[in-house]
């Protein structure tokens, strides 16, 4: 609980800086100035995590009691991390400048680097996927591992001490990761660059960037394109949150700033909060969905499996190692397992990587495997079926579920 409180204080300071205007440090966010943000999101995160570790208890208390963005910038200049933040800002700008199309951001630490290496080998044969990637490594181990295997990839070393540990849904570090990602989305949208957020626990049978064209899937007034929780009922209106596209405009900045504010205040998951914001078109945002038949999630693996999606996320709630093991057992062993770990240079199994659509046989995906639910998945399914029944009986209950209950169910449970 103490860790959670400290993390929230740290990121509250980050948000104040990330949303400053291009004028003086400490200026507050305004609608008219949404495009002038000048403080890099990771600079702020790095500053506050490292700074708080480097000072005395008395000075730390003094810093945490400050409530102006200008105070944090002043403190930062005192402890001398400007050079590091300049490096982060420069490498980010260079990476963005060398990518002509919409960049795709992927984040990981050393505990998710193996599944990331497997995914990089999964998509190596797809045209123009590696070229548009910007990978964010939260620790030195993952950064060095990725650069050994793929020296030409855009890998940014944004070291945040807390984020080098294992985390999973429900703990403070996962909440911090969600808030970090939301802040990053707000910052990127303020730059005027459309972009993708993706995850490496997704098996690509086809090239996402070729089969999903945001210009075709988004109407003229729509700006956010999300993956779906399912194909029917409430699930078709709910966001999975693993892979999504952001059209950079004023509405998108406001959307993710609001998401950050709520993540800072409530114990919740970002996908459910985003679903709530989409349900009533917060700040004029209009959301659309990538069809479930194209991009699925864990529910597909535990359902009837009547069709074969082109992209399949293995987001079962298990850790990264378990996800990688599951994919490898099915046949999606794109990276050679013996080349992982021990400061080795990871290598792709090109006999599989050259034709990723055939890595896992159709019979293994649809007819084979174990589709039993674990305890968490079973609970989620039971509650969801109850909600579907309530919506059928009381149609007006639907908006309450999407806008209030689903976004904050975990917060209500904790209370």
From TrEMBL:
Q: Where is the Nucleotide-diphospho-sugar transferase domain?
A: 129-327
Any matching Pfam family: Nucleotid_trans
Q: What is this protein called?
A: Nucleotide-diphospho-sugar transferase domain-containing protein
Q: Which organism is it from?
A: Parascaris univalens (Nematode worm)
- Domain of life per record: Eukaryota
């Amino acid at each position: 609980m103490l860790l959670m409180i400290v993390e929230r204080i740290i990121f509250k300071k980050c948000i104040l800086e990330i949303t400053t205007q291009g004028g003086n440090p400490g200026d507050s966010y305004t609608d008219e100035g949404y495009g002038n943000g000048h403080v890099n999101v990771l600079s702020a995160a790095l500053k506050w995590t490292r700074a708080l570790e480097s000072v005395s208890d008395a000075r730390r208390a003094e810093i945490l009691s400050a409530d102006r963005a200008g105070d944090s910038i002043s403190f930062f200049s005192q402890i001398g991390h400007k050079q590091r933040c300049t490096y982060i800002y420069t490498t980010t700008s260079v990476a963005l400048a060398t990518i002509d199309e919409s960049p795709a951001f992927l984040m990981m630490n050393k505990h998710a680097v193996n599944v990331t290496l497997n995914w990089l080998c999964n998509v190596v044969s797809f045209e123009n996927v590696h070229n548009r990637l910007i990978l964010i490594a939260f620790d030195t181990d993952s950064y060095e591992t990725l650069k050994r295997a793929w020296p030409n990839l855009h890998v940014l070393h944004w070291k945040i001490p807390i984020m080098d540990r294992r985390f999973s849904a429900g703990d403070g570090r996962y909440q911090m990761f969600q808030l970090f990602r939301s802040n990053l989305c707000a910052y990127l949208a303020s730059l005027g660059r459309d972009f993708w957020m993706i995850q490496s626990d997704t098996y690509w049978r086809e090239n996402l960037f070729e089969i999903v064209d945001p210009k075709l899937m988004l109407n003229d007034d729509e700006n956010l394109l999300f993956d779906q929780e399912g194909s029917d009922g409430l699930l078709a209106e709910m966001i999975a949150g693993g892979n999504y596209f952001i059209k950079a405009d004023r509405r998108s900045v406001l959307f993710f700033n609001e998401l950050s504010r709520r993540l800072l205040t409530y114990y919740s998951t970002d996908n459910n909060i985003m679903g709530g914001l989409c349900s009533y078109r917060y700040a004029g945002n209009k959301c659309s969905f990538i069809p479930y038949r194209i991009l699925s999630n864990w529910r597909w693996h535990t359902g009837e499996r009547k069709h074969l999606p082109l992209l399949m996320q293995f987001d079962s709630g298990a850790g990264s190692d378990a996800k990688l093991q599951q994919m490898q057992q099915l046949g999606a062993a794109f990276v050679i397992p013996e080349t992982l770990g021990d400061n080795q240079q990871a290598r792709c199994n090109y006999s599989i990587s050259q034709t990723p659509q055939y890595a896992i046989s159709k019979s293994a995906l649809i007819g084979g495997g174990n589709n039993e639910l674990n305890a968490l998945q079973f609970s989620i399914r039971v509650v969801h079926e109850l909600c579907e029944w309530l919506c059928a009986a009381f149609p007006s209950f639907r908006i309450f579920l999407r806008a209030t209950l689903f976004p904050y169910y975990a917060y209500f449970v904790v209370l």
